[in-house]
Write a structure and sequence with these properties.
- Strand 23 and strand 24 form a beta hairpin.
- The chain has a 5-stranded antiparallel beta sheet, with no helix packed on it.
- By secondary structure, it is an alpha+beta fold.
- 19% of the residues are buried.
- The chain is built from 2 helices and 25 strands.
- The longest helix is centred in the C-terminal third of the chain and has 35 residues.
- It has 3 domains: 157 residues, no CATH class; 40 residues, no CATH class; 41 residues, no CATH class.
């Protein structure tokens, strides 16, 4: 028969544990018979998983809790608790209570490292609970629970930051710690004056302001007439009769090309003139020979007559 006096609501008041790294609490209940219920919980103050500063109160990284332990039948955890959970013969109930994920071995449960969420730059608080129910061979029974942890929304003394010093940033950045710690961040040093321009090969770079620093922005599209760009790929043009094409963003003169820059029409006119000359040729060689032969015959006849004339003249003079 269950004893009404065993139904106990356990209230635990914990004082500030900011300097305590580990703690544990246990509880037990017996039935007056052979049933005996025992539980314990063990927890730790958050530690920085990253770069720790100012005695661990500032963390570039995350705050974690390691090696939480429970002993009992049921194990619970709650983050940012506002009140203690209530226990009964069936276990614990609470607003945001969750079953703990841990490695169980013979009623002892051990957690892996748990990363605490951050709220307003501070890691959230947490509590854990263990609960157990036991029955004796004499039909007696007993149950009990135990809780421990930090009944707070956040650990306000702990701060999560993006950076604390320049070494937390990239080589070309510095840690800007102006303003509230939640606003600390890595920023790049200004490398140019807003509005300046320069060329990176054929690409134009302009100095753009990003608030507290300025940096070069490279335009991916090339601009004709800027940074030595004469033309864009596949662009062509004519320089009188010469045909120019664009290679590596420079115009290359290919000379006169048939079908380009009007060269094809001029060649056709020249071909037509040649064809006309071929269609109206001069006299053939045979015709020229035919014209020359009568002249030769005429000259030959005159020569023969002249020779005869000389012979006659010589003969007359001799008779006298």
């Amino acid at each position: 028969m269950k004893k009404l006096g065993i139904f106990i609501i356990l209230f635990i008041t914990l004082f500030s544990l900011g300097s305590v790294s580990a703690w544990e609490y246990d509880n037990h209940e017996d039935s007056g018979g052979l049933a005996f219920a025992y539980v314990f919980v063990e927890g730790y103050y958050p530690v920085c998983d990253g770069f720790s500063y100012e005695g661990g109160n500032i963390c570039v990284g995350d705050y974690v809790i390691k090696n939480l332990k429970w002993f009992g039948d049921k194990y619970y955890i709650e983050f940012s608790p506002s009140y203690w959970a209530t226990s009964s013969e069936n276990g614990y109930t609470g607003q945001n209570l969750k079953s703990a994920r841990c490695n169980e071995n013979h009623m002892t449960c051990t957690s892996d490292s748990i990363t605490l969420d951050t709220k307003n730059g501070h890691p959230v608080g947490y509590v854990i609970y263990a609960w157990v129910y036991e029955e004796g061979i004499d039909d007696s029974w007993a149950w009990t629970g135990q809780g421990g942890g930090y009944l707070i929304d956040t650990f306000n003394e702990l701060k999560v930051v993006e950076c604390y010093q320049d070494s937390n940033c990239e080589s070309d950045e510095f840690c800007d710690k102006r303003g509230d710690f939640k606003d600390w961040e890595c920023r790049r040093e200004s490398v140019c004056d807003d509005g300046d321009e320069k060329c990176d090969g054929l690409k134009l770079q302009k100095c753009i302001s990003y608030g507290d620093y300025s940096d070069w922005f490279t335009y991916t599209d090339l601009e004709v007439g800027v940074c030595g760009v004469e033309c864009l790929e596949s662009e062509t043009k004519c320089d009188e009769k010469d045909y120019l094409i664009c290679e590596n963003n420079k115009f290359i003169d290919k000379g006169e090309i048939i079908g380009k820059c009007g060269v094809e029409e001029q060649i056709e006119e020249v071909l037509e003139e040649e064809i006309i000359e071929e269609e109206i040729p001069g006299e053939t060689e045979q015709q020229q020979v035919n014209k020359i032969d009568p002249i030769i015959y005429l000259l030959g006849g005159i020569g023969v007559i002249f020779i005869i004339f000389l012979i006659l003249l010589f003969t007359i003079k001799k008779k006298k």
